[in-house]
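ok new one. same drill as before - structure tokens go in, u give me an amino acid for every spot. 576 of them this time. try not to just spam alanines like last time pls lmao
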């Protein structure tokens, strides 16, 4: 019942066309009943009495009925197909909209392939639900009612003989339907795993080839594909078993009707026309009854993806604040901030207290896993502190709208994200409605303009997925140009020059120095040579601030920073 209620809710915006399709269904059902009714005069008037006028009249009536049924079936099918397509479109839109609003910790739970499968495969399962399943539910239910009415009017005793076994068959079918739902759930999970493997393989094809693991990946895909095949065949066996059951039940019913009705004809209790008209109605009842069994199977199969969709839609979205913030006037501060990822038992950050003044350049230094990236991720509210608050000019950022907060922050990350679009579109992503002059100016500031002009179509060159057609340095400079165009008061530079060669790094470093002027900037860098000019350096270790000061102060303190510095110096010396 809850499932049908959910389907009705999804269909609510399109009830008008569905209702019109329902009217057409009733008309089609009535026309089906008229065909059974025409069997009596066809046999009695034409084949028994040999009436030529009746032959012409009944032939014309049959032609009109079939033509009318075809027209109304076309209208009904078109309306239901369009409603089904619109519902799938709406589900996909809702899923994508909801997913983009989920917090970052959600994206660590499910793989990219699994989420793609929810939006594409699970939602696509409803394409045929209205187009075929609900259509058959309307048409065949009405047809059965009309035909039973015709049959009862002719011979109620024969009708009871024909349909008395149907409830038993429907009960057995419902039991099989529950098994079909479970199998369908497993099948959806298997196709999700296949989508996951495809997404991973195509995005990591360079790694697969470099380690010569093509055969292993093909084998992994083949195993998952075989698992899906097994579940698919299990569902096929259940579906065909229900069809076999209905054929057997139909055969029993019609055999008894033929036996009993044939005796009535022999005894002249009914005319041959009455009997064949009734037999036609009974034959026509079993056909929609079998289709209704198919409707039940389809509904059971649709429950599995709907449950997966509802589970995703039940995920809580990012907590939204109400206060608008347009700039930073004084400072950004961490107040007793601790944070722990859901999948870990230890804090990634512990009891952080820190204040960055407006325009100050803060460098974050520490070993891998010290909490540097987590530190800056909290500023953008990609995650929320487990304890404590982060404030801008005294306003807790948890009370600030996400859009106004994130519009203040520009990020250049070591994990370069470029979309499969033109160079122009990737840079313009930093500012809606940016002019051509602003875009080119940002590219020049990032020392990207010259290499862009050398590309085949210049600014209209497509970068490929994740910028695969560009070098690492080129991708990084486009990422920097995007941040320059955004022109934010707060900058986060997470290994912003890590992919550049020495010459490019020098150029981009100058661009970043210009960009950082007057902005509150957080710089993460493993190469300590890039953080020497910072106003302050924060040294993190195991999620805690262990040192704070300038480059020279920290060297003199002979602490962790000094050790990291000496280690890098020795490494560079060895490399030389």
């Amino acid at each position: 019942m809850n499932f049908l209620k959910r389907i009705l809710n999804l269909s609510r915006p399109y009830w008008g066309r569905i209702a019109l399709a329902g009217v057409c269904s009733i008309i089609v059902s009535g026309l089906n009943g008229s065909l059974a009714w025409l069997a009596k005069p066809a046999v009695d008037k034409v084949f028994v009495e040999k009436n030529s006028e009746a032959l012409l009249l009944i032939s014309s009536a049959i032609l009109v009925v079939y033509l009318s049924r075809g027209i109304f079936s076309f209208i009904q099918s078109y309306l239901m197909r369009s409603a089904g397509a619109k519902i799938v479109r709406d589900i996909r839109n809702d899923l994508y909209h909801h997913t983009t609003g989920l917090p970052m910790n959600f994206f660590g739970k499910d793989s990219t392939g699994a989420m793609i499968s929810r939006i594409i495969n699970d939602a696509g399962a409803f394409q045929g639900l209205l187009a075929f399943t609900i259509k058959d539910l309307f048409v065949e239910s009405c047809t059965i009612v009309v035909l039973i009415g015709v049959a009862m009017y002719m011979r109620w005793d024969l009708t009871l003989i024909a349909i008395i076994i149907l409830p038993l068959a429907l009960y057995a079918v419902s039991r099989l339907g529950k098994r079909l739902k479970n199998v369908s759930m497993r099948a959806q999970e298997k196709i999700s795993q296949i989508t996951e493997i495809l997404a991973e393989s195509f995005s990591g094809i360079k790694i697969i080839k470099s380690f010569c693991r093509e055969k292993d990946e093909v084998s992994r895909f083949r195993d998952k594909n075989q698992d899906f095949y097994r579940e698919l065949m299990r569902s096929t066996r259940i579906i065909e078993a229900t069809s076999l059951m209905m054929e057997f039940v139909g055969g029993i019913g019609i055999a008894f009707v033929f036996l009993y009705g044939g005796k009535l004809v022999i005894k002249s209790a009914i005319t041959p026309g009455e009997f064949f008209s009734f037999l036609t109605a009974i034959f026509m009842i079993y056909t929609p009854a079998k289709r209704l069994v198919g409707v039940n199977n389809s509904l059971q199969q649709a429950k599995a993806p709907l449950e997966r969709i509802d589970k995703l839609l039940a995920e809580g979205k990012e907590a939204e604040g109400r206060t608008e913030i347009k700039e930073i006037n004084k400072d950004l501060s961490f107040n007793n901030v601790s944070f722990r990822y859901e999948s870990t038992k230890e804090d990634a950050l512990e009891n952080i207290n820190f204040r960055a003044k407006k325009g100050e350049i803060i460098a974050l230094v520490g070993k891998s896993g010290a909490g540097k990236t987590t530190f800056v991720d909290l500023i953008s509210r990609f995650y929320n502190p487990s304890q404590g608050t982060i404030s801008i000019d005294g306003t807790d950022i948890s009370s600030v709208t996400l859009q106004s907060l994130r519009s203040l922050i520009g990020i250049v990350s070591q994990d370069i994200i470029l979309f499969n679009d033109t160079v122009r579109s990737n840079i313009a992503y930093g500012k809606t409605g940016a002019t051509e002059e602003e875009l080119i100016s940002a590219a020049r500031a990032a020392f990207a303009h010259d290499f862009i002009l050398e590309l085949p179509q210049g600014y209209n060159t497509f970068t490929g997925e994740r910028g695969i057609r560009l070098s690492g340095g080129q991708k990084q400079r486009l990422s920097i140009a995007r941040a320059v165009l955004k022109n934010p008061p707060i900058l986060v530079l997470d290994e912003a020059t890590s992919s550049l060669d020495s010459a490019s790094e020098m150029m981009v470093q100058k661009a970043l120095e210009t960009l950082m002027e007057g902005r509150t900037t957080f710089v993460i860098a493993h190469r300590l040579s890039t953080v020497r000019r910072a106003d302050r350096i924060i040294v993190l270790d195991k999620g805690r601030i262990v040192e704070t000061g300038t480059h020279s102060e920290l060297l003199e303190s002979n602490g962790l920073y000094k050790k990291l510095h000496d280690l890098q110096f020795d490494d560079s010396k060895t490399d030389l």
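The first strand starts at residue 331 and ends at 339. and btw The CA atoms of residues 265 and 271 lie 6 Å apart.
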